[in-house]
UniProtKB/TrEMBL annotation:
Organism of origin: Kineosporia babensis
Keyword match Signal: yes
Name used for this protein in its record: Lipoprotein with Yx(FWY)xxD motif
GO biological process terms, semicolon-separated: alkane catabolic process
The keyword Membrane appears for this protein: no
Pfam family, one: Lipoprotein_15
Keywords assigned: Signal
Leader sequence segment: 1-23
Length: 196
């Protein structure tokens, strides 16, 4: 692996602690683990906490958007919650606003890679968080949550390796207007599976 790729390479690194786990951000271009290089590059990573934002004394929504609202910068923190209901039979992920989260069949989980950029990302905004931010979980296994660096440099949350998105056509809590869209967009389970 050349030095440039090694410098860009960010790997998944789990550090178990009293507050949760810390995730290093995986570079989409190279999923080869290189924890020591990652640390020396100053990757702030993310902290994943196994309870809600409210239980951790957080107010508001961390800057998380709804529907077609434009996100000027990644959220300070994100909450992922396992939910039932709507037009799907299984458990699916929602955010702090109860907005449904989706996965894209044209992406990859191994290695994690987002292929939804530019105009696609306007219709399907990626679930992003600031580097060094926090991800709060309710009913979600922390071991299934990760993060990648997108082509534009932002940090996108993953579940089971699959990058997570909102749908600009969902404006109310629990809506699933993106479900099955174009045969490639589906509500996502806490493990990253399609919910149909």
């Amino acid at each position: 692996m050349n030095r440039r790729l090694l410098g860009l390479s960010l790997a998944v690194l789990l550090l178990l602690g009293a507050c949760g786990k810390s995730i290093e951000i995986t570079d989409e271009d190279d999923a080869t683990p290189a924890p020591s290089q990652t640390t020396s590059q100053g990757n702030a990573g993310l902290e994943v906490l196994d309870n809600s934002a409210e239980e951790n004394g957080m107010n508001g929504d961390g800057g998380t958007m709804i529907g077609a609202e434009r996100q000027e910068q990644p959220a300070d923190w994100v909450q992922l919650t396992a939910a039932r209901g709507g037009d799907v039979s299984g458990i699916r992920l929602v955010d702090i606003h109860q907005s449904s989260l989706y996965r894209f069949d044209n992406d990859s989980a191994n290695p994690s890679k987002s292929t939804c950029n530019d105009m696609c990302a306007l219709t399907w905004p990626p679930v992003t968080v600031q580097e060094g931010g926090r991800v709060y979980l309710e009913g979600v296994n922390a071991q299934r949550i990760g993060a990648i660096r997108r082509d534009d440099g932002t940090v996108q949350i993953t579940a089971g390796g699959w990058p997570l998105y909102r749908f600009s056509g969902d404006s109310q809590p629990g809506e699933l207007n993106g479900q099955g869209r174009d045969g490639v967009w589906f509500a996502v389970s806490p493990e990253g599976q399609k919910v149909e």
